[in-house]
Design brief:
The protein folds into 2 domains: 142 residues, Nucleotidyltransferase, domain 5; 168 residues, 2-Layer Sandwich (Nucleotidyltransferase, domain 5), CATH 3.30.420.40. It is 42% helix and 19% strand. Helix 8 links the parallel strand 9 and strand 10.
Length: 338
């Protein structure tokens, strides 16, 4: 049984094809147009999706070695995300499914990130978590600790009360004049810097919740004072600034995650979302696996950013449950829970 999956929640247009839960193709078109604006421009994003979606879907089907008539269902990201971008993918999925007379499966974008660990590239790929497991979901818009009891039962143990970790990285990168997106730039510079060079604010929030707005403010104020004394301070210390910022964010994330593991007793721990591509965070997971005997799951780099493969595997689970979507379901930009 073949499933076509479509992802268009932000600025990446992606399509994938799976056969009985095995990934056959995963094609993504990214949008470079946003770099000069320092962030994603929603109107430009939706226009680019309109240009990209037909060739991306066509390429995914061709690389899978099938015909569109072989498909048994279409899975699509319904939300959350940028509404204009989502509407392109949702509208295409509805028209495509209706033309072939096959069912549609709506997928929650965040649920897809969490279940990316179940993407299989071959029959011999069996390195997936067993339920329940904990997942640290970190991206530009979300920072959450989830207890994943099944593919459709996810409990949010903690989440950011203001900014997300990825958002903090991007904004601090922008303040330093390093451009957008800031994550890859900060990661590259941090590999060359001293993580102990500077100290920034680490907010003390109750429970498993996060806060990164204080860190952002601390970084901005420190930078402002240092630049007053030395106008070229950022250029002279950008590697150390990046390394210290990264370490602070990773420390904040891992401290709450350690507490959640201790309190729940669940030692299967996964990381997901765009920030899971960060080298410092991935190294922290490897370190905690050794120190605390966690069984960890770190996604391939290709599955950290927005991609249709994660939508496809989530859609496959829903297909097995015959959990199909009606033609009148709208896209949604925000949501209360997974």
């Amino acid at each position: 049984m073949y499933i076509l999956a479509i992802e268009s929640s932000c600025d990446d247009t992606s399509a994938a094809v799976l056969r009985d839960g095995i990934l056959l193709s995963n094609v993504t078109a990214s949008q470079a147009v946003h770099e000069e604006y320092g962030g994603v421009v929603p109107e430009l994003a939706s226009r680019a999706h309109q240009q990209n979606i037909v060739p991306v879907v066509s390429a995914a089907i061709k690389r899978a070695g099938i015909m569109k008539e072989d498909l048994g269902a279409v899975a699509f990201t319904r939300g959350p995300g940028l509404l204009g971008s989502l509407l392109v993918g949702v509208s295409f999925a509805k028209g495509f499914a209706r033309s072939l007379g096959i069912p549609m499966i709506d997928v929650n974008h965040l649920q897809g990130h969490v279940l990316a660990h179940f993407i299989r590239e071959s029959e011999d790929d069996h390195d997936q978590p067993t339920f329940p497991y904990l997942c640290l979901l970190v991206s530009g818009g979300n920072s959450q600790i989830l207890q994943v009891n099944s593919y459709k039962d996810m409990e949010i143990l903690g989440q950011t009360i203001d900014d997300a970790a990825g958002e903090a990285i991007d904004k601090c990168s922008k303040v330093m004049g390093l451009g957008y997106p800031g994550g890859p730039v900060i990661d590259k510079l941090a590999r060359q810097g001293n993580p102990e060079a500077f100290e920034f604010s680490k907010p003390d929030i109750a429970g498993y919740d996060y806060s990164f707005s204080g860190l952002k403010t601390s970084f901005l104020y420190h930078l402002r004072d240092w630049v007053k004394e030395d106008p070229d301070f950022i250029e002279h210390h950008k590697e150390d600034l990046a390394a210290s910022l990264e370490k602070t964010i990773v420390d904040i994330l891992m401290k709450k995650l350690r507490r959640a593991v201790k309190d729940t007793g669940i030692r299967q721990v996964a990381v997901a979302g765009g920030v899971s591509a960060n080298t410092g965070l991935r190294n922290a997971f490897l370190d905690h696996a050794k120190r605390y005997h966690w069984k960890i799951f770190i996604p391939k780099f290709s599955y950290t950013t927005d991609n249709a493969a994660m939508i496809g595997i989530t859609g496959y689970f829903k297909y097995l449950d015959k959990d199909f979507a009606s033609i009148d379901l709208p896209a949604y930009a925000r949501m209360e829970k997974i």
